[in-house]
Write a structure and sequence with these properties.
The complex is a heterodimer of chains A (280) and B (313).
Chain A lengths: L1 H36 L3 H4 L14 H8 L5 H32 L5 H12 L7 H11 L5 H9 L2 H12 L3 H9 L4 H9 L4 H17 L2 H6 L8 H11 L4 H21 L1 H11 L4
Helix pairs in contact in A: 1-14, 3-14, 4-7, 4-8, 4-11, 4-13, 5-8, 9-10, 11-15, 13-14
Chain B lengths: L2 H4 L13 H33 L16 H7 L2 H33 L5 H9 L6 H12 L7 H8 L15 H28 L2 H9 L6 H11 L1 H16 L3 H6 L5 H5 L3 H11 L3 H31 L1
């Protein structure tokens, strides 16, 4: 018995040691982003390692926003607008379609469901060339709506909402119908208020995905006025047009809002991950 | 609740069938999604397929049909074939590594007691970071090829000289850079999925196994936990594999789209990006998209077969 508890203590210590080592490893990139953003360029490229910026160069942020060649504010604004509209419209349209597919009896419902499911089979990023062709025809290149539009319609989201509403108790809905509510009334007054868990879970994931997406905004937003924050960063990175400390200051500015959202909404994000993988 | 379990037939009360208001409501509710998916998914696929059969240089209009010439060109195009090989190599690295690391993290975090929420948050938080930002840190700071790069300063402590990382073909250090960036970004997400799977395993199964004399540790993992995580594992591998084949962001931002570094490892999406957006060759660009889709289907099926065979024994 004694040997067993000593063995347990040892394995416990090893496990926590490993966990703490991994925590440090996972936090290193965050540390580097913040450290570099607050150093001078000379300190970044120095061979003498600087652990903490002393004094911190807050001026790097002022210079970043004052730089006329760096459309950082435009990028942040574009990303915020695009991610917010994508979030709202995707949740609205997907929940509507999910509800109809789960609960409104109509001829052709199975056909519609099958059609939506079949688009789920297509790997999204692969179709960017054909999608670009269509978007160019529709005149969406270099516009915010051109970046937003395809992201609003998600077969996967519709599918998850349908699954959610299939499990929704029919009694509530039938009571609403008996009280004279139309299908729209049932959706608006009974279903939506009771869908906050899935709306929050998928909504946060949609927002993060939209804010962080890169390939489609890169393809559509070719003019600097349509750049999202990711495209701005990528341009800095590949063209090396600004100095290193400003580059990291830009990274801080683009990541900080999302880290805040992430920490505040973590509960919902975990739920969203479970929804998305079929664990909920 | 598993998706597969809940794909049951929706309830349909016969009295409402054929109800005109129901039909109207149904179409109003699905109309936005149906129109959106048609315009932005189905039309591009059809249009893209027609473009892939056309000579479409500097134009997005379907016209001059050339049959399967674009497909033939690409399948004999060494750069495109190399890009397929590149993505295959990448998938071979990233898929098993992500599986092992995210499962390992989930097992560790699951038994961390009061520390579980803290550790879960730390490992999950990179999911909030974009590939562009990760590429920036990896390329400019962590794996900078100059002596001041963080990795180079660390190995200098052991007396080793600086490594060029992404600027050298042999040995392929650039794989280390690309694979670790994606690992850092995505293992937290898959860890969450595994944690959910672990929490679904009833306690009684562990207890029964202990009564039967199964020792904790590897035998428990091999004979109890892994079989119980079967469906979770399949969805993790599948999501991961499909995502790996569509890798673009980190390759584009770390190695670039053109130039010497890019030629080390250019995945299909970066190649198609150059073909369509720089060379304006939409015929070949779309043909490449369909070839890649076919490859993803094939690989997914093969992976499904392999997992399926595993189940038989």
């Amino acid at each position: 018995m004694k040997a067993q508890s000593r063995h347990n203590l040892l394995s416990q210590t090893l496990r926590y040691g490993l966990l703490i080592f991994l925590v440090v490893l996972f936090l290193v990139p965050f540390y580097l982003i913040v450290r570099n953003a607050l150093l001078t360029d000379r300190q970044i490229t120095s061979l003498r390692w600087v652990w903490l910026p002393a004094p911190p160069q807050w001026d790097n942020f002022r210079k970043l926003f004052a730089d006329p060649a760096a459309p950082m504010l435009t990028g942040l604004w574009n990303s915020a607008v695009i991610a917010t509209i994508t979030l709202v419209l995707q949740m609205l349209f997907s929940s509507m379609a999910g509800y109809a597919l789960a609960r409104i009896p109509a001829r052709g419902r199975n056909a519609v469901f099958f059609l939506i499911l079949s688009t789920l089979m297509i790997p999204g990023a692969v179709t960017f060339v054909p999608s670009y062709a269509v978007m160019a025809y529709l005149g969406g290149v270099n516009t915010r709506w051109g970046i937003i539009a395809p992201g609003v319609f998600s077969a996967f989201s519709i599918f998850l909402f349908r699954q959610f509403y299939l499990r929704f108790p029919t009694e509530i809905e039938e009571a609403g119908r008996l009280d004279g509510l139309s299908y729209f009334g049932v959706y608006r007054h009974l279903l939506l208020p009771n869908s906050t868990s899935i709306l929050m879970a998928l909504g946060v994931l949609t927002f993060i995905g939209s804010w962080n997406s890169f390939l489609w905004p890169l393809v559509i937003g070719q003019d600097p006025s349509a750049w999202t924050v990711q495209v701005v960063l990528s341009t800095f990175l590949t063209a090396q047009t600004i100095n290193l400390s400003q580059l990291f200051a830009a990274a801080v500015v683009s990541v900080a809002p999302l880290v805040v959202v992430f920490l505040l909404m973590q509960r919902y994000i975990v739920e969203g991950a479970k929804f998305a993988s079929g664990k909920e | 609740m598993k998706l597969t379990r809940s794909v049951s037939k929706p309830r349909l009360s016969p009295s409402r069938r054929g109800d005109r208001s129901a039909t109207l409501a149904f179409w109003v509710f699905v109309a936005p999604s149906l129109i959106g998916l048609t315009v932005f998914t189905i039309v591009p696929i059809v249009w893209g397929f027609l473009l892939s059969l056309s000579h479409a240089q500097n134009t997005i209009r379907v016209g001059q049909f050339v049959g399967l010439a674009n497909y033939g060109d690409l399948l004999t195009d060494e750069a495109f074939l190399r890009s397929l090989k590149t993505i295959l190599v990448f998938a071979v690295f990233i898929v098993p590594l992500t599986y092992a690391v995210s499962l390992g993290l989930a097992l560790l975090v699951n038994r961390a007691g009061w520390g579980t929420p803290f550790f879960r948050t730390v490992f999950f938080i990179p999911s909030a970071v974009s590939y562009v930002v990760a590429a920036l840190v990896w390329k400019v700071s962590l794996f900078n090829g100059l002596s001041f790069g963080v990795a180079n300063q660390m190995i200098a402590g052991f007396g080793a000289g600086p490594i060029a990382w992404i600027g050298t073909a042999s040995p392929p250090w650039y794989w280390l850079v690309l694979v670790t960036a994606r690992l850092w970004l995505q293992v937290g997400f898959f860890m969450i999925i595994f944690l959910a799977g672990l929490q679904e395993i009833p306690r009684s199964i562990y207890e029964a196994a202990e009564v039967d004399g199964a020792r904790p540790g590897w035998p428990m993992l091999r004979h109890i936990i892994l079989p119980q995580l079967r469906s979770t594992t399949i969805s993790v591998l599948l999501l991961n594999l499909i995502a790996a084949f569509q890798a673009f962001d980190e390759f584009y931002n770390i190695l670039g789209a053109t130039g010497a570094n890019a030629s080390l490892a250019r995945p299909p999406l970066v190649y198609l990006y150059s073909l369509a957006l720089s060379d304006q060759d939409f015929g070949r660009g779309t043909a490449g998209a369909f070839i890649l889709t076919a490859v993803i289907f094939a690989v997914t099926l093969i992976q499904g077969r392999i997992i399926g065979f595993g189940e038989a024994d």
